[in-house]
Amino acid sequence: YQRRVHGKFGFWEALNNGGVISYSVAIILAIFSLGSFFILFTRFYDQTKIFGQAKALPTFWRAPTLREGTAKLEKNSPFRDIAETGLLAEEQHAKLANALEAHEWLTGSLARTEAGIVGYLSRGLPFLATVGATAPFVGLFGTVVGIYKALIAIGIAGSASIDKVAGPVGEALIMTALGLLVAVPAVLAYNYLQARNKRPMYSAL
User: Fold this and answer.
1) In the prediction, which pLDDT does 2 show?
2) Are the C-beta atoms of residues 150 and 172 closer than 8 Å to each other?
C-alpha cells in the first residue's frame, strides 16, 4: 500500500501533474546546478594549480636580482607574469624623465597585471551569484503554479479532499525544495571561491 501511494505521489508523478511548466522549471534548475558545479570544480582546479606554483616564491625572493628570480618561477605562472611586468616597467623607467611618473607607471603596470589574474580566477563567479539569487525564485514560480492548480482542483471538486490537492501541493513543495537545493550550493561555492581567490596574491607578498 505504501509503495502504491508513493508511486502515485512521487517526484516524477508530481512533474507529470505539473506539465510543461514544472518540467521547464526543473530543466532550468538542472542547468543552473550543472553550471554551478562545473564552475566550482574548474575554478578550484585553477586555484589549486596557483597554490602549487606559489611554492617557488621563497626561491624567487632569495635570488640576487629580479631577473634571476623571475627565471626561477614556473612559466605561465601568475607570479611570473607579475615579475615580468615589473621588469618591463623597470626598462621603461629610463624613458621617463620624472621619478614620480616612473613610480606611478610601475604601480599601474603591476595593478593591471594583478587585476587581469584576479579576473581570470573570477570567471564564472557572477554566474554562481546569479544562480544563488534567482534559483529560489525560479522554484517559487513552480510553487505558485502548483498552489494555483491545487486551488482549481478544490474549486472543481467543491471540497478540499486530500486526493484532489495532494498532487498539486506536492508539486509546489518539490519546486520549492529544488530551488533551495540549487541556490544553497551555488552561494556556498561563490563564497568559498572568493575567499580562495585572495590567497594566491597575498602569498606573493
Assistant:
1) 42
2) yes
- DSSP code string of 50-61: HHHHGGGHHHHH
CA distance to 62, 120, 193, per residue, from 85 (Å)? 19, 17, 26
Dist. CA 99–CA 106, nearest whole Å: 11
CA atoms within a 13 Å half-sphere pointing along the CA-CB vector of 86: 13
Residues 136, 185 contacting (CB under 8 angstroms): no
Q: For position 182, what pLDDT does the model report?
A: 93
pLDDT of residue 3: 47
All three cell numbers of 96:
621617463
Taking the C-alpha atoms of residue 112 and residue 27, their distance in angstroms, rounded to an integer, is 40
Mean pLDDT by 10 residues, the chain (205 residues): 48 67 86 94 88 76 76 78 76 62 69 78 90 91 78 69 65 83 94 81 48
Return the closest-CA partner of residue 46 out of 117, 112, 110, 114. 117
Q: Angle at Cα 151 formed by Cα 150 and Cα 155, nearest 5°?
A: 120
pLDDT recorded at residue 128: 93
Contacts of 90 by beta carbon, 8 Å cutoff, 6+ apart: 66, 106
Rg (CA), the chain: 27
At 110, phi and psi to the nearest 5? Answer: -65, -40
